[in-house]
Design goal:
Blueprint lengths: L1 H36 L13 H91 L5 H28 L7 E3 L1 H16 L4 E6 L7 E3 L1 H18 L4 E10 L8 E8 L6 H6 L17 H11 L3 E6 L5 E8 L4
Parallel strand pairs: 2-4
Antiparallel strand pairs: 1-3, 4-5, 5-7, 6-7
Helix pairs in contact: 1-2, 2-3, 4-5, 5-7
Amino acid sequence: AILVCSTLLISFALAFFLERRVARPVAALVAGMQRAESGELGVRVEAARGGEFAFLAGSLNRMLSRLEELTAGLESRVRQATRDLAEKNRELQQANERLWQAQLEIGRSGRLAALGQMAATIAHELGTPLNSVLGYTQLLRRQPWSADDGEKLAIIESQVQRMIETIRSVLDRTRDRELHHAPVSLGPLVAEALTIVSSRLAGREVALQSLVPPDLPPVPADAAALRQVLLNLLTNAIDATEPPGTITVSAVVLPQNGRPGRTLELTVSDTGHGMAPEELRRAVEPFYTTKAPGRGTGLGLAIVDHIVRAHGGQLEVESARGHGTSVRVRLPMEES
Ligand SMILES: Nc1ncnc2c1ncn2[C@@H]1O[C@H](COP(=O)(O)OP(=O)(O)O)[C@@H](O)[C@H]1O
Ligand SMILES: [Mg+2]
């Protein structure tokens, strides 16, 4: 009985000791780890009095502190990066808006130029017959007429004069602004035009490339007018090119073949659908377009031709159905 009693006693003591010194600290460690695992990084395990468990609890607590620091640092870095990204996004949006604005301006100046061209055409078409009506009326008035008929002729003459005046004043108001010639570096101008039109590609697989040599000498030209030439030609090339395709802008100084002065040749070529012979023949004609209403004005090439002539140059369009198009602009390198 004594043996049984003492064995029981020792067992209880042992159990008590194990529960106090092993099971409790282990449970505390496990509970702490579980809470940390569920995201509660602020949790700390109460260190038992000395021994391995106290050491373990201390290590765990230090690890948790370190983890808490790292997480806080990471969160603040993510917040900063998100703020930076939002800022960059805003800047990008603003740049995009400015680009759109610039494109609108260019469109407006294109429309103004088109209006000037139309006014010039109308003035020419109406001006010639009106001047002959005026001339004949003045001739007729020199003959003897009854007072009544003479008065009618005078009215006709003054009315025709009024029409001619009106046409002249409209023409004066819409006449092209003067071109301002200055040395123009083609490389940057072409790069700028390519950037502007690239937004029209909207992810289509069409490559835009500039083969303008960096050492090309500057050309005497009106930079704004030359930009308009490039934009109009590039717009046509983009409209004609189904992906995959390539649009190339190149420039070369032509060798002097007998003629005085050198010539710059600027070419915009595309691998697009090209033009049928009849289309090619009429392409430069004002208001000729094969595009859907609202998509084309038929004035792009007419304006290009107008500008190129105003620079003393020539325009040449080469195209074959299914084989793409090359538009060549030749400009004199020396001002005449
Ligand atoms: N690069 C090109 N490829 C194929 N066709 C073209 C090209 N450029 C011009 N054209 C033809 O010439 C026409 C007139 O061009 P344009 O004067 O710029 O007017 P728009 O582009 O408004 O139609 C176009 O409608 C098209 O039929
Ligand atoms: Mg066009």
